[in-house]
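Tutorial handout. Part one gives the primary structure; part two gives the three-dimensional structure as tokens.
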Amino acid sequence: MVSPDLVDSEARSRQAGEIFRREHVDIVLVFPFGYTPSMNVLPAVAGLDVPIRIVNAHEDRSYNYARADTTLYLHHEGVCCIPEIAGALVNLGRRFKVRTGALDDPRLREEMRADCLGAAAARFFREMKVGLIGQVYTHMSDMPIDEHRLLRNTGRPHA
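Part two.
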């Protein structure tokens, strides 16, 4: 887990991005707590070619709006910035997904697990080395292989 210090400004977001690039992260989880402007996120993900997940999760499933005070409201405010962050990522042409649920929700946990396993698998394919022995003969349809397709599909455009 690569976790920079609190990212609460554009400058700190740039520092977080430098850390993410240096550590070669496989996925970025954006977990807004309180209102997080998009400029606290965009510099961190600029130049990264990894999946981005905006995590809209909280330990509470709901709270009593009628009795909520400012402190409780601010504690639950993270959801408010998700449309802004999502819109900014769309404007930059960045793909992302929003994962929503209570922190103890099995569905949310499974989605997050699948996202992380997918990112790990992508790294594996980018870094794997494939040994290939043999020569396919012309018109031999029982053992076809397209080496270029293999390299392309594993993210390795060159041998």
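Part three, for discussion. The mean pLDDT is 87. The chain has one domain: 10-128.
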